[in-house]
Amino acid sequence: MVRQKIEIKKIDNLTSRQVTFSKRRRGLFKKAKELATLCDAEIALIVFSATGRLFDYSSSSMTQVIQRRKAQPEGINRLRQTFLNQVGGDIDDAISKELTALTREYKQLNGEELQDLSMNELARLERVVESALGRVSKTKNDQLMFEISKLETREIELKKENEMLKQQAEKKRNATEQGSSVESIANSYGFRARCPYEDKSASDTALKLGLPFPAGDC
Fold first, then answer.
1. Using one digit for the tens of pLDDT, what is the confidence trace for 79-91?
2. What is the pLDDT of residue 197?
3. Which residues, listed in sequence order, are joined to residue 44 by a DSSP beta bridge?
């Protein structure tokens, strides 16, 4: 049997497109691995699916390969220019069709233009939306837990600061009460500094009789 040649164009059916993407991606990665092994080539592949999922392969280090690519921009620019010269005006049509398809898929993800989709396509779209919602919910929960952890840490710090302030206030209150007690005891026994100009005979008499010193300012 002669193998039928497949026309290379975008597959409109979403389910068929997804199946083809999975098969072609596996084949592409397999060929890249074989090429790296057989020819000792350094290869890096980065593929994003229509739903934004990342697939990559690197024969060594992805970072190193990307750095090598950045170090040789002229070769990439020449390759790009050659490609543009070959496709000519067809590139505008291809971009326009791709933009139209992406716009349609974006509207479908927002619940628009669903009437022409089959049951399989609707089920596949539902899985995509549920997966996206799951990632959003997980990100939200992670952010919430992070904020709660920050608040709990701040609460512990505030409790420590409050305890330190209470201890400092207690020390000051004890020092003030101790000073007041000493002063009160001194006053109760009539202790005070002798005035340099106070009559010595009156002081001697007060001491002999056990009387308090006469009140008054020096």
1. 666 666 655 556 5
2. 47
3. 58
* 6-15, 38-47, 117-126: range with highest mean pLDDT: 38-47
Q: How far is residue 41's CA from residue 60's CA, in Å, rounded to a whole number?
A: 10
Exposed, middle or buried by CB within 10 Å (0-12, 13-18, 19+), for 26? exposed
Instruction: Name the amino acid, one letter, at 113.
Output: E
SS3 181: helix
| Token output for 22 | 């999975």
pLDDT (mean) for 36-52: 88
Contacts of 125 (CB under 8 A, 6+ apart): 14, 108, 109, 114, 117
Instruction: Tell me the three state secondary structure of residue 117.
Output: coil
Which residues, at least 6 apart from 107, have a Cβ–Cβ distance to it below 8 Å? 113
Radius of gyration of the chain from its Cα atoms, rounded to whole angstroms: 44
- Residue identified by tokens 């290379």 is 8
Q: Using DSSP bridges, classify how beta strands 54-58 and 44-48 pair: parallel, antiparallel or unpaired.
A: antiparallel
